[in-house]
Amino acid sequence: MQALMTVVVVITVAILVIIGAWAYSRANRLDRLNVRVDLAWQALEAALERRTVVVRLLTAWMEDSGVPETITAARHLAACADAAEYAPRASREDAENALSTALNRVDPSVRPPGLIAELADAETRVMMARRFYNDAVRDTRNLADRFLVRRLRLGGRAQRPEYFEIVERVTTSGTAD
């Protein structure tokens, strides 16, 4: 009887150690994914800020043109850039979409050749950073949504990350491609 009791205790301890190791590895993985989301957000913010800098250069060039329609468009574009730059994280998507739409409405012939390439590069970097960020969010949410991870509260107090959805390319009619 004593031997049977010892076997049961050993098996129980082994099962608890295995469950503890699994829970520790899942919690550690979830923590690393949250760090990945934070780093991806920082990269996305940097790409968005770079695009805003290029837009400001474009608006300065447009205002120097002396054409009244171009100056009006430049002021609208500058206002959209300000709104996007200073928007809180919760409303950043809408502000960035408004900036993209305003930027697309600027006549391409008004854009100086040097800034065309710079703007295209900045927009490409924004789209790449957004995709990396959303990939990190997807991976984090997939792990955090698993039944045992939720039940054992392995995510701790980390907030659930949200996707960042902006229009990748806007046509002159205002619809996304």
Automatic annotation (TrEMBL):
Transmembrane segments: 6-24
Tagged with keyword Membrane: yes
Top-rank taxon: Bacteria
SUPFAM superfamilies assigned to the protein according to its UniProt record, in alphabetical order: LemA-like
Keywords (A to Z) from UniProt: Hydrolase, Membrane, Transmembrane, Transmembrane helix
Record protein name field: NUDIX hydrolase
Gene3D superfamilies listed in its UniProt record: LemA-like domain
Species: Gordonia oryzae
